[in-house]
Amino acid sequence: MTNVFKPIRPKKISEEIVTQIKVLISEGQLKPGERVPSERELAALLGVSRPSVREAIMVLEAMGLVESRQGGGTFVRSLTESTLADPLTSLVEKNPRMLHHLAEVRMGLETWSAYLAAQRATDEEIETLRKLVAEMERQAEDGGWDAEIDTRFHYAITTATHNTIQLHVLNTIQGLFHTTIMVALTEFYQKEGYIKMLLEHHRTIMERIAARDPDGARQAMAEHLELVRDKMQQLESDNQLLS
Amino acid sequence: MTNVFKPIRPKKISEEIVTQIKVLISEGQLKPGERVPSERELAALLGVSRPSVREAIMVLEAMGLVESRQGGGTFVRSLTESTLADPLTSLVEKNPRMLHHLAEVRMGLETWSAYLAAQRATDEEIETLRKLVAEMERQAEDGGWDAEIDTRFHYAITTATHNTIQLHVLNTIQGLFHTTIMVALTEFYQKEGYIKMLLEHHRTIMERIAARDPDGARQAMAEHLELVRDKMQQLESDNQLLS
DNA sequence: GCTAAAAACTGGTCATACCAATATTCCAGG
DNA sequence: CCTGGAATATTGGTATGACCAGTTTTTAGC
Predict the structure, then answer these.
(1) Residue B164 CA, nucleotide D16 C1', distance (Å)
(2) Taking 70 as the threshold, does the pLDDT of residue A158 lie above it?
């Protein structure tokens, strides 16, 4: 008996205006680069006050749909990249210190995944992990490191928890991580010759899971991610030197 | 050689307010669920007019960082609410078996919180935990168990991690948990006389954190949540008999 | 002590005025 | 006729102030 009733909330009239203008833009009646009627004009047309129109336009501007210039007017932007990022992303991108927090949360989730996976992984799933490690070894011999394989390895572990929600949550965090720093991190690995160590880490994690040793798997995962965290911090301070 | 010159734009003061509040949220000075000062108050604090504050809040609301209710106030949302809670809610509602998964994810997050809190909790935060346990003891003497105090205890631990993202993620999961099963679980406790055991659990967790013993704190939290998980499973099978 | 009325916030809307930046118009000088 | 620049109109940005409509808190009465 949860949430049977919808949360009745009086819709603000500024929201109504927002949806109307969004429709106009998506229908092409307001084309990119075109001028939106002035705030006073809109207020008159819609029969509302200017502040209401103004709030609507602020929201549209925050969504990246329009752009206002004082004295100039309000213009429709190309909606090629008008996707409003989710709250977490917008904060992490702006504040590098958040990356450290993010890495830490990921650490908690992944160690937990390793722990659960060691309890429940099927033989088939363990075999998948084994193959991924073998693939890593093959690439490592050439001095290469494929972030794609790395990601698939961690994903496979969480799959082996047989917990849909864990998979979903970790996937969300992992996605953020990937879009923000993964690339730089991979380059860093290759340059600094950490590949052997990384390979060893992954092999140990795989073996602890295969041995059905939850605590060992968690420990191995923790050590691996501690390295990642430290290197990331190093990357951060390097970047600060540039700016 | 494009865009050598930056587009000179006079920064709107509402944008300035937006960034200020974003910083407060990302630094954890404004925690999820907390009230942000009223519009009039903010206007006075910042020395600007209310419309400016209002526009800033509209933008923040559009970004999903805060939520305003007329007459109520403006509240900080969990950053992961839109990305995690909504999809997960639909999952859990369709498949009650998911509750078990949800409890397990919470277990992973909370054990991690306990681990981190034992490393970083300030003396003041430890004192808060101690007071909460004392309050539990007082109520337990009358054979009562207050879910509110329980929740605040766990919340305080995650606050002591000093990790904003961990706080937001756990808050989202916790919220899901609360709306689905928390009430039934509390009744269950009271009937079955588990209160003494619960009290002991919480005291141990608090003591391990106070002793700066990360592994011990994690272990204590794990044992506590294992009990919760088992009792929940018991509840589920009972409910199945009814349906 | 508990309940219900009332008072005090708080966000939502509106009206108005003025400022600052930009567009537009228009006129004088080439 | 064109051209440059000043005067003018338009537009978004900010500030006051007022009132309404829900919430929350306090208070008064039973």
Answers:
(1) 38
(2) yes
